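Lecture notes, unit on protein representations.

Consider one protein chain, 219 amino acids long.
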Amino acid sequence: MNQNDSLYKKSHFNRLGEFSTLSPESFKTFVAFDKKALSEGKLTAKFKELIAVAVAHTTGCPHCIDFHVKQVKKHRASKEEMAEAIMVATALKAGSALAHGVNALNAYDGTADDELYRASYINRLKEFSQLDGDVFKAFVTFDQKAMKAGLLSVKEKELIAIAVAHTTGCPYCIDIHTKGAKKAKATREEVAEAIMVATALKAGSALSHGVNALVAYDE
């Protein structure tokens, strides 16, 4: 295989520092923001790294997964805790596709409403139980199990879900899981910190992919 066929190598991540000279002010301010977003606050540094791992699986950034899994391990999170966070991310990423399915139903039925997102549209979700019942039921069962308390509490899982929902950009998921987190006694500050971790990770995934741009540019 041609060496240039490899688009992702762990070693490419070492080139990230080049942005400190190529775009110094932006890079410096991002690093400062990222550090603050992941530091201890109302949420522990360990839990923020679990959120980061979940979000990294949503953005699909191999460098971010590698980096934040190592960080979460440093904070003594177990492999089982990490797996639970990943399962929440999986449920939310799949769930966002299904939630947008209500828009597909509206479009198929020629709904005249000019509003593309209403909280009430999610009530159409149950129609999939008639349209593709076995598959819909299987997803609902998985989603319920993924969000059920385990090593991570319901509150923690709802906070992870909020972060992932902001990454997938699903208005229905944001609405449902913010209310779910509030019901589980999460504070507004804790919700905000989870969102900031998601923001840092989504921005960080773009920057991380930048090392591939540097490799491509130099070829």
